[in-house]
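Schema walk-through. Below, the input block comes first and the output block second. Nothing else is stored per chain. Lengths vary across the set, and this one has 236 residues.
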Amino acid sequence: MLTPIPVTELSRMKHQPPLAARSEQLAPRMQTSEPEAFLPASVPMNFGRNAEIYAEDETAGYVYKLISGVVRISKLLPDGRRQISAFHLPGDMFGFEVGDLHHASAEAVGSVKVVAFKWHSLLSATASNDFVHELLNRTMIGLRQTQDHLLLLGRKTALERLAAFLLELAERSGQDSQDSVLDLAMPRHDIADYLGLTLETVSRMFAELKENGTIRLESARRVHMINMDKLKAMAA
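--- output ---
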């Protein structure tokens, strides 16, 4: 993990989140009308591009709410390949574990702001009802996204996988209308590891979507969704 530091001085030093945190340091939209004594303590943290938030097999004691940026969850396979299991967008919560260790790593795709909550404080009976409600809601959203990813990996063709991925990102970022513009935070090799494809295949599928008039590429990461109906038909 990295030490909580100002955004202008991001470093890559390993750390454990401070054990003491002020209860008034709460993420946006986490604040409620409940007295501060009934809200779990939190630690605001900043990470630079590709910085590690937590590592696979590291002790899990905190969960995180993403305030800005994109976080990837990944695991190294025995043969050295990397599998990305999730991309988290602002508002998502991550870091939940059944056991005492993290089963995967969490890294910042670009500059990231998160708020860390000590897991035991979330389980406390003194936590506000509003906070617990949002926590459960975010957990259920995460489960649904995991199910969607499993369905995506089960699609037969590379084109179907990429189409489904673009639709998912567009929906989650509120850019799912016709001729929307999708700014991809992640590079194509991240997309390839998420879709279970090679980088060359992903690049070829982007080119095919461009050639058949489904998307327009302003740059490698700026995608104009020209024909949403056609994209949805591919992903169906």
